[in-house]
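call fold(seq) -> tokens
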Amino acid sequence: MEGQQCHNDSTGLIPISDLGTNLFNGMQGGLYGNGQNTTPQNHLIAGIQIASEIKPLNTQGNYASNGKIGFISMGMSNANIFFAGLRDSAIAFPFLNSKLTMINGATGGFDIDAMLDTTGQYWTTLNQKLTFAGITNNQVQVIWFMQAKHISGIPQNEGIEHIEIMESKFLQAFHYFKIIFPNLKQIYCSGRDYGGYSQPGGGNPEPYSFYTNWAFRKLVERQINGDTLLTYSGSNAKTAWLSWANNVWADGKNSRTDGFNWHCPDDVQQDGVHPNASGKAKVASLLFQFFKSDTTSFWFRENTTTNIENTENTKGIKIYPNPAMDVIKLEFNDNKYSRIEVVNYNSVIIEETDNIVINVSGYSSGTYLIRVYSSDKILIEKFIKQ
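ret:
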């Protein structure tokens, strides 16, 4: 049968982000494990510090005020489509970091095995794209990753073991990325979108798309738990710091708790594999909202590439009272600041202001970050809303 398989509109599987502390095949839900869909605090703080090290580099990989920050996608055709949408939104964003160069390194027709063929056409094509953009491997510092295995390469009777197989392949790829891109700092992943609508024998059908999301989920949790194969700091770093960007898998027409879903034929092309303009836009919008506002991706925005001060060490900013009920006041030495952001631990900017007195009475109880931007640094400090 040709065309979309719109009748395959559900698998009955529960998205990782909706599973909570319940189990799938012995694995607990949550994008970061333990039922958590937000970055655990220690991993988040590490991500912020690593983000502070992302600076414009020259072609040899040394800091240069007129250098570039290479941000590339890595993956297959769907990744290419989604990243193209993200790049379109970024180009229109007035606060995009002028040092940022976005390169769509994802290429249609090349699955994870083609990517692991380090002398193959995938890497030849990627090198051509980098050269055309005027970027060297030394300047690539951030990767957005979406990859899978084409159905033609999956043994007929392969089942749940696909998770471990893909986990191993992704780990191999991440190790290779770190070798090829020596200044790589961060890898963000969005998993794989719903594959149930694809034509028979095509694409990456269900449940394999679902399994692929678990493969990345397991690697993130392993890194958080200190797996030495996923060390991301120091001279012995084997990979980059890993994080989810957005989870884009939903069980077809069944909306996740956040409302996200996939509809056929509304969101997919005739082959049922690739997103159409609607599907492209819905994922690109998620990615854009993430990268322009996440606590660990301030390199995406202008005026954030020179220096960062973590005020737990430098005491460059004071917040009082802390904890607070109604109003906080900020004190810092730099009078030439451009803006102040309040960020919650879901990595969402909930307020932007130029006022050093901030009314927090309407905030939910919890821990927040204050970010103060000036021309050459960012001050960061935490406060607690009671």
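DSSP finds nine helices and 15 strands in the chain.
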